[in-house]
Amino acid sequence: MELVEFENTSALDIELSAKVAKLLIADIADTGSASLVVSGGRTPMGFFHLLSQQILDWSKVSITLADERWVDTDHADSNEKLVRANLLINEAHQATFIGLKNSATDAIVGEPEAEQALAAVGKFTVLILGMGDDGHTASLFPGADALALGLDMNSGRTCIGVTPTAAPHQRISMTLPRLLDSQQIIIHISGAGKQQVLEQAQAGDDVEALPIRAILNQQQAPLAIYWAK
Predict the structure, then answer these.
(1) I need a labelling partner for 98 at 20 to 30 A (CA). Which of 33, 111, 119, 165 fits?
(2) Which domain holds residue 110?
(3) Is the CB of residue 64 less than 8 Å from the CB of residue 99?
(4) Are 225 and 189 in contact (CB under 8 A)?
(5) Residue 190 forms beta bridges with which residues?
(6) Does this model's pTM top 0.85?
(7) Is 167's pLDDT higher than 90?
(8) Count of alpha carbons within 13 Å of 177, Cβ hemisphere only?
(9) What CATH number has the domain bearing residue 90?
(10) Tens digit of each residue's pLDDT (9 = 90 or more) over 19-44
Protein backbone atom coordinates (compact mmCIF):
# COMPACT_ATOMS: atom_id res chain seq x y z
CA MET A 1 0.00 0.00 0.00
CA GLU A 2 1.25 3.44 -0.98
CA LEU A 3 0.27 6.51 1.09
CA VAL A 4 0.70 9.85 -0.67
CA GLU A 5 0.14 12.94 1.51
CA PHE A 6 -0.58 16.47 0.27
CA GLU A 7 -0.64 19.83 2.00
CA ASN A 8 -3.99 20.71 0.41
CA THR A 9 -6.69 19.37 -1.87
CA SER A 10 -5.54 21.43 -4.85
CA ALA A 11 -2.15 19.75 -4.87
CA LEU A 12 -3.80 16.35 -4.52
CA ASP A 13 -6.22 17.00 -7.39
CA ILE A 14 -3.39 18.02 -9.72
CA GLU A 15 -1.31 14.94 -8.92
CA LEU A 16 -4.23 12.51 -8.97
CA SER A 17 -5.60 13.74 -12.30
CA ALA A 18 -2.16 13.32 -13.89
CA LYS A 19 -1.76 9.86 -12.33
CA VAL A 20 -5.14 8.62 -13.55
CA ALA A 21 -4.61 10.05 -17.05
CA LYS A 22 -1.25 8.26 -17.26
CA LEU A 23 -2.84 4.93 -16.29
CA LEU A 24 -5.67 5.36 -18.80
CA ILE A 25 -3.25 6.27 -21.59
CA ALA A 26 -1.09 3.22 -20.83
CA ASP A 27 -4.06 0.83 -20.87
CA ILE A 28 -5.33 2.28 -24.16
CA ALA A 29 -1.85 1.75 -25.63
CA ASP A 30 -1.73 -1.84 -24.33
CA THR A 31 -5.29 -3.04 -24.99
CA GLY A 32 -7.04 -0.40 -27.11
CA SER A 33 -9.39 0.72 -24.34
CA ALA A 34 -9.49 1.74 -20.69
CA SER A 35 -12.01 2.04 -17.87
CA LEU A 36 -12.41 4.29 -14.86
CA VAL A 37 -14.62 3.78 -11.80
CA VAL A 38 -15.31 6.85 -9.69
CA SER A 39 -17.22 7.70 -6.54
CA GLY A 40 -19.57 10.56 -5.71
CA GLY A 41 -19.55 13.20 -3.00
CA ARG A 42 -17.88 16.59 -2.69
CA THR A 43 -14.30 15.33 -2.34
CA PRO A 44 -13.66 14.39 -5.99
CA MET A 45 -15.19 17.43 -7.69
CA GLY A 46 -11.93 19.35 -8.16
CA PHE A 47 -10.23 16.17 -9.32
CA PHE A 48 -13.05 15.58 -11.83
CA HIS A 49 -12.62 19.02 -13.37
CA LEU A 50 -8.87 18.62 -13.77
CA LEU A 51 -9.15 15.08 -15.11
CA SER A 52 -11.71 16.20 -17.69
CA GLN A 53 -9.06 18.48 -19.19
CA GLN A 54 -6.39 15.78 -19.62
CA ILE A 55 -5.45 15.10 -23.22
CA LEU A 56 -6.02 11.45 -24.14
CA ASP A 57 -8.28 9.42 -26.40
CA TRP A 58 -11.38 9.66 -24.24
CA SER A 59 -13.47 7.93 -26.92
CA LYS A 60 -11.76 4.71 -25.82
CA VAL A 61 -12.55 5.20 -22.11
CA SER A 62 -15.57 3.83 -20.24
CA ILE A 63 -16.54 5.55 -16.99
CA THR A 64 -18.85 4.14 -14.35
CA LEU A 65 -19.61 4.46 -10.64
CA ALA A 66 -18.63 2.37 -7.63
CA ASP A 67 -22.12 3.00 -6.26
CA GLU A 68 -25.22 5.06 -6.89
CA ARG A 69 -28.19 6.35 -4.94
CA TRP A 70 -31.47 4.93 -6.22
CA VAL A 71 -32.83 8.32 -7.27
CA ASP A 72 -33.64 9.79 -10.67
CA THR A 73 -30.52 10.78 -12.60
CA ASP A 74 -31.58 14.44 -12.48
CA HIS A 75 -31.96 14.34 -8.67
CA ALA A 76 -29.59 16.56 -6.67
CA ASP A 77 -28.21 13.48 -4.87
CA SER A 78 -27.52 11.48 -8.03
CA ASN A 79 -23.88 10.49 -8.49
CA GLU A 80 -24.51 10.18 -12.21
CA LYS A 81 -25.66 13.80 -12.33
CA LEU A 82 -22.50 14.83 -10.45
CA VAL A 83 -20.24 12.96 -12.86
CA ARG A 84 -22.00 14.24 -15.96
CA ALA A 85 -21.74 17.84 -14.73
CA ASN A 86 -18.15 17.71 -13.47
CA LEU A 87 -16.27 14.95 -15.32
CA LEU A 88 -17.99 14.24 -18.64
CA ILE A 89 -17.08 17.71 -19.88
CA ASN A 90 -14.16 19.32 -21.70
CA GLU A 91 -11.97 16.62 -23.28
CA ALA A 92 -13.72 13.85 -21.34
CA HIS A 93 -17.10 14.49 -22.98
CA GLN A 94 -16.13 11.79 -25.50
CA ALA A 95 -15.99 9.06 -22.86
CA THR A 96 -18.69 6.39 -22.63
CA PHE A 97 -20.65 6.54 -19.37
CA ILE A 98 -22.23 3.41 -17.89
CA GLY A 99 -24.82 4.28 -15.27
CA LEU A 100 -25.92 1.98 -12.46
CA LYS A 101 -29.38 3.50 -11.97
CA ASN A 102 -32.11 2.10 -14.19
CA SER A 103 -35.90 2.23 -14.38
CA ALA A 104 -36.53 -0.57 -11.85
CA THR A 105 -38.77 0.27 -8.91
CA ASP A 106 -35.96 -0.21 -6.38
CA ALA A 107 -32.30 -1.12 -6.30
CA ILE A 108 -32.80 -4.82 -5.56
CA VAL A 109 -35.15 -5.18 -8.53
CA GLY A 110 -32.62 -3.25 -10.61
CA GLU A 111 -29.65 -5.49 -9.75
CA PRO A 112 -29.78 -7.75 -12.86
CA GLU A 113 -29.91 -4.82 -15.28
CA ALA A 114 -27.05 -3.07 -13.51
CA GLU A 115 -24.97 -6.24 -13.58
CA GLN A 116 -25.69 -6.64 -17.28
CA ALA A 117 -24.59 -3.06 -17.96
CA LEU A 118 -21.26 -3.71 -16.22
CA ALA A 119 -20.71 -7.05 -17.97
CA ALA A 120 -19.32 -5.27 -21.03
CA VAL A 121 -16.42 -3.90 -18.97
CA GLY A 122 -13.59 -6.22 -18.05
CA LYS A 123 -10.92 -5.57 -15.46
CA PHE A 124 -11.05 -1.90 -14.47
CA THR A 125 -8.04 0.23 -15.31
CA VAL A 126 -8.47 2.52 -12.29
CA LEU A 127 -10.89 2.50 -9.35
CA ILE A 128 -11.22 5.65 -7.24
CA LEU A 129 -12.91 5.08 -3.88
CA GLY A 130 -13.95 7.43 -1.12
CA MET A 131 -14.40 6.60 2.54
CA GLY A 132 -17.14 7.69 4.91
CA ASP A 133 -16.72 8.71 8.54
CA ASP A 134 -18.35 5.38 9.43
CA GLY A 135 -15.75 3.44 7.45
CA HIS A 136 -17.97 2.62 4.49
CA THR A 137 -16.72 2.62 0.93
CA ALA A 138 -18.80 2.44 -2.24
CA SER A 139 -22.17 1.67 -0.57
CA LEU A 140 -20.84 -1.12 1.61
CA PHE A 141 -22.18 0.29 4.87
CA PRO A 142 -21.58 -1.15 8.34
CA GLY A 143 -24.78 -2.63 9.72
CA ALA A 144 -26.53 -2.89 6.36
CA ASP A 145 -28.37 -6.17 5.75
CA ALA A 146 -26.64 -6.57 2.39
CA LEU A 147 -23.11 -6.04 3.73
CA ALA A 148 -22.22 -9.73 4.07
CA LEU A 149 -23.28 -10.39 0.48
CA GLY A 150 -21.38 -7.34 -0.71
CA LEU A 151 -18.19 -8.55 0.97
CA ASP A 152 -18.53 -12.20 -0.12
CA MET A 153 -15.69 -12.94 -2.53
CA ASN A 154 -17.47 -16.08 -3.76
CA SER A 155 -20.93 -14.64 -4.36
CA GLY A 156 -20.57 -14.38 -8.12
CA ARG A 157 -22.28 -11.00 -7.84
CA THR A 158 -21.09 -7.68 -9.25
CA CYS A 159 -23.86 -5.35 -7.96
CA ILE A 160 -26.20 -5.43 -4.98
CA GLY A 161 -28.99 -3.25 -3.68
CA VAL A 162 -28.25 -1.73 -0.28
CA THR A 163 -30.44 0.02 2.28
CA PRO A 164 -28.12 2.00 4.62
CA THR A 165 -29.05 2.16 8.29
CA ALA A 166 -27.96 5.79 8.75
CA ALA A 167 -27.83 7.40 5.31
CA PRO A 168 -30.58 8.59 2.96
CA HIS A 169 -31.72 6.73 -0.15
CA GLN A 170 -31.51 3.13 -1.14
CA ARG A 171 -28.30 2.43 -3.07
CA ILE A 172 -26.81 0.10 -5.60
CA SER A 173 -23.18 -0.81 -5.03
CA MET A 174 -20.50 -2.83 -6.69
CA THR A 175 -19.52 -5.83 -4.62
CA LEU A 176 -16.05 -6.33 -3.15
CA PRO A 177 -14.96 -8.90 -5.78
CA ARG A 178 -15.98 -6.55 -8.61
CA LEU A 179 -14.23 -3.58 -6.99
CA LEU A 180 -11.04 -5.57 -6.55
CA ASP A 181 -11.03 -6.58 -10.22
CA SER A 182 -8.96 -3.48 -10.95
CA GLN A 183 -5.44 -2.79 -12.15
CA GLN A 184 -5.09 0.06 -9.63
CA ILE A 185 -7.20 1.12 -6.65
CA ILE A 186 -6.88 4.61 -5.22
CA ILE A 187 -8.59 5.78 -2.02
CA HIS A 188 -9.14 9.54 -2.23
CA ILE A 189 -9.73 11.31 1.10
CA SER A 190 -9.12 14.66 2.75
CA GLY A 191 -9.17 16.16 6.24
CA ALA A 192 -8.04 15.16 9.70
CA GLY A 193 -11.28 13.30 10.39
CA LYS A 194 -10.73 10.90 7.51
CA GLN A 195 -7.16 10.37 8.62
CA GLN A 196 -8.43 9.24 12.02
CA VAL A 197 -10.87 6.80 10.43
CA LEU A 198 -8.09 5.47 8.22
CA GLU A 199 -5.78 4.95 11.19
CA GLN A 200 -8.57 3.19 13.08
CA ALA A 201 -9.21 0.95 10.09
CA GLN A 202 -5.53 0.09 9.77
CA ALA A 203 -5.37 -0.83 13.46
CA GLY A 204 -7.95 -3.64 13.27
CA ASP A 205 -9.35 -6.35 11.04
CA ASP A 206 -13.13 -6.40 11.71
CA VAL A 207 -14.33 -5.77 8.16
CA GLU A 208 -18.02 -5.61 9.07
CA ALA A 209 -17.34 -2.82 11.58
CA LEU A 210 -15.30 -0.78 9.07
CA PRO A 211 -15.85 -2.13 5.53
CA ILE A 212 -12.98 -0.02 4.15
CA ARG A 213 -10.74 -2.66 5.77
CA ALA A 214 -11.74 -5.04 2.98
CA ILE A 215 -9.91 -2.74 0.56
CA LEU A 216 -6.99 -1.95 2.86
CA ASN A 217 -6.29 -5.58 3.77
CA GLN A 218 -6.64 -7.21 0.34
CA GLN A 219 -3.71 -8.46 -1.71
CA GLN A 220 -5.42 -8.70 -5.09
CA ALA A 221 -4.98 -5.19 -6.53
CA PRO A 222 -2.32 -2.48 -6.05
CA LEU A 223 -3.57 0.16 -3.61
CA ALA A 224 -2.62 3.79 -3.13
CA ILE A 225 -4.12 6.29 -0.68
CA TYR A 226 -4.17 9.94 -1.70
CA TRP A 227 -4.84 12.08 1.38
CA ALA A 228 -4.91 15.87 1.67
CA LYS A 229 -4.49 17.49 5.08
Answers:
(1) 165
(2) 9-228
(3) yes
(4) yes
(5) 228
(6) yes
(7) no
(8) 13
(9) 3.40.50.1360
(10) 999 999 999 999 999 999 999 998 99
